[in-house]
Amino acid sequence: MSRSKRQRDWLIVAALLLLANLIISITLLWRFAGPAIVETAPGNPRFGLAFISSPDHLADEARYNGALAAGATWDRWPLYWHWVDEGGYTGPHAGGRHDYDTLIAQDLAHGLTPIAILLGTPARYAQAAPPPDPGGDPTKPNSLPVTASTATLPPAGLTEPIFSDGTDEPGPGKQINPANPWAAFVFATVERYRPGGLLAWQQGWPRGVGLRYWEVWNEPDYQLFWGGTVEEYDRLLEVAYKSIKAADPQATVILGGLAFYDQRDWFPALLRQTNGDPSQAHFDVFSFHHYLSVYNSEQLIQQARASLTAFNLQNIPIWITESGVSVWDDFPATAHNVASDTPFRATLVEQSAYLVQNTALSFYNGVERYYHFQLHDDCGDGPSSAYGLRQNFSPHACNPAQGQPRPAYAAYQLAAEQFAGLIPLWRDKQYEQDRVAFYRPADQARVIALWATQA
Questions:
Q1: Domain boundaries, the chain
Q2: What is the rounded distance in angstroms from the CA atom of residue 5 to the CA atom of residue 163?
Q3: Which of 49, 136, 187, 350 is most buried (most C-beta within 10 Å)?
């Protein structure tokens, strides 16, 4: 994407009606006021972040406080089967250690709702040799440490019956079939972390406290993460869905967030597996990822809704579980001399404008929840990566800094504060500007997001 194209798509100002100079003001505050975090009202249940904490780098209080002050209420992170197979739920894995018990307990203690992404086939269960490396999508962060390896391959035993009575149909007292390793892992994991499960019992949690949101794989339509076919993912999803519901009937199963990168027909092909029967669509929530262009993202929302409706799934909620843009004019990008015309990058101001624009358009088009990628830069997709609402804290393995908030942090705060309990009203998109209006019943207010579409 050229510099001029970025300017046309989301140039500078994104604001609420009463704060037309929001982004400029945020930038000035960030430049001169230092890293202080503004206290805000309780978080917005529609807003989440990727990697507030993670299994191999548990968040400290400063990191949690930054997420909560931003208005986030959800934390999305991966739960790797191959790590659990290697070291248990709390133990070592190749290159480090992980602790899922503490991660989940800390998220819940801070009032966050965790989403666990179930993925990563252990080498001993992988069906076939690794596929050739297809390369990466330069527009998206390589956010999860799963490469084109055995971890991306369909697990052996996937076609075996889910339950020990030789069927795939759940029922009272039925046991999971140990010949289906994926089913056994998923059931054991949900049983451990569900409300009333093993960890809840060990920790003495109140009734109803536990992990109830499970995403089945990450970007299965992108070969970097899933080396199987659409049909094999459909079976993976079915096995996971029925295993999750067997352990916790009230759990929510989320379709692995789609990338819509190089296989645009992948999702319709998945839906065709249902033959139009909603009971054969083994997910409660549709999710996808999108970076850079707010209007491309809006188009994908509309296309996804049309596809779902065509297969009698019009009531399935849509979540955006990853979205963001990396900046070029701030550390660590500046330390690596990232040029201003580098493709797939934005300025600090553009990043903050993107966030307000994208949340406004997402909620106007019926998206139920929105997750920004990500709270901090962490290690991202390379040493110059700068997707975070904030720089890293020091010490950090990658690009240690002082946790400085970017203007996008304040934009996220404002969006989380203002875009609460909204009812879409109208949209007025013209050549030079775009306006999106909502009604907020809580205080009988009209909320308008507006921005320039031309320089």
A1: 39-427
A2: 54
A3: 49
Letter for the amino acid at 148?
A: A
Tell me the two tokens of residue 218: 């990450």
Tell me which amino acid residue 146 is.
V
How high is the pLDDT of residue 134?
52
Q: How would you classify the pairing of strands 47-50 and 369-372? A: parallel
Residue 215 tokens read as 């995403």
DSSP 40: -
Residue-wise pLDDT for 129-159, tens only, equals 544 545 555 555 554 544 458 999 999 999 9
Which DSSP string corresponds to 360-407?
HHHHHTT--EEEES-SB-TTTTSTT---SSBPPPSS-SSS----PBPH
Complete DSSP assignment for 92-112: EETTEEEEHHHHHHHHHHTT-
Contact indicator for 235, 158 with CB cutoff of 8 Å: yes
CATH top-level class of 39-427 = alpha beta
Residue ranges in 261-389 assigned as alpha helix (H): 266-272, 294-310, 348-364
| Strand partners for 115 | 76, 213
Say if pTM beats, i.e. exceeds, 0.70: yes
DSSP letters for 132-161: PP----TTS---SS--SSGGGSPBTTTTS-
Q: Write out residues in the chain with pLDDT < 70, as ranges.
A: 1-41, 129-148
Give dist(CA 255, CA 84) in Å, integer: 21
Strands (E), 220-357: 252-255, 286-291, 318-324, 326-327, 345-346
Report the alpha-carbon distance of residue 2 to residue 292 in Å, rounded: 12
Is there a contact between 373 and 412 (Cβ–Cβ < 8 Å)?
no
Q: Quick one: which of 4, 5, 9, 12 has its CA closest to 293?
A: 9
Residue 154's closest CA among 267, 41, 232, 244? 232
Q: How many residues does the chain have?
A: 455
Per-residue pLDDT at 142: 54
Q: What is the pLDDT of residue 45?
A: 98
pLDDT of 381 reads 83
